[in-house]
Amino acid sequence: MLCGAGWTGGKKASWQRRGKPVWAADEWKDIATREEKLPVKVRHVDAHVPKSQANEEHQNNEQVDQAAKIEVSKIDLDWQHKGELFLARWAHDASSHQGRDATYKWAQDRGVDLTIDSISQVIHDCETCAAIKQAKRVKPLWYGGRWSKYKYGEAWQINYITLPQTRQGKRYVLTMVKATTGWLETYPVPHATAQNTILGLEKQILWRHGTPEKIESNNGTHFKNSLINTWAREHGIE
């Protein structure tokens, strides 16, 4: 530690004492820079004195120390919490909105240290997960056996549902339900367009489950248009 006019020696010693960096070196560097331009006086106040022997100077020093500790601790904890939530939100999004334990494992496998509590909070506040839960409550077209003629994975029901805009600007979720089993795939998008529909079908169905024989939807323009019709015809999809 440096005191008094000792920063001059500290500056010459590259801000080290006995081979170790001095405490608060950046602050002392700043003082040294200011000292070159204007006269500065620094006094050391002994903080380790009994309260019975403390004078006004000691009391003032104690008040400043306590105030600094409280404010810094609040700021540090707040930023630490926000930073962990940011990482948890990133892991949850990047892992395709998996559950708590799956998101935790996904992060651990990639060297990201998260707590279960932060992941749980992110999942609880996730608009996409809320939309997925809503989609699972919708009765699929296969209900009642109307698509029973199709074999496993050969037919899908698709639709768009809306949700509050996410931090990534996505307001819609393309939901894709396998007709014979009710298996759900989802694809969040900023706009319900034909191009986004094709991207969702390719990434979530064709790449994962193979090309289906039939896709059924409502007659929205994002489903019934020349771009979708051409794409379906090229893939042999009804």
From TrEMBL:
GO terms for biological process: DNA integration. Signal peptide: none annotated. Keywords: Endonuclease, Hydrolase, Nuclease, Nucleotidyltransferase, RNA-directed DNA polymerase, Transferase. Residues 136-238 form the Integrase catalytic domain. InterPro entries: Integrase_cat-core, RNaseH-like_sf, RNaseH_sf. The keyword RNA-binding does not apply. The keyword Thylakoid does not apply. GO terms for molecular function: endonuclease activity; hydrolase activity; RNA stem-loop binding; RNA-directed DNA polymerase activity. It comes from the Eukaryota. It holds the Pfam family rve. This is Integrase catalytic domain-containing protein. The lineage of its organism: Eukaryota, Metazoa, Chordata, Craniata, Vertebrata.
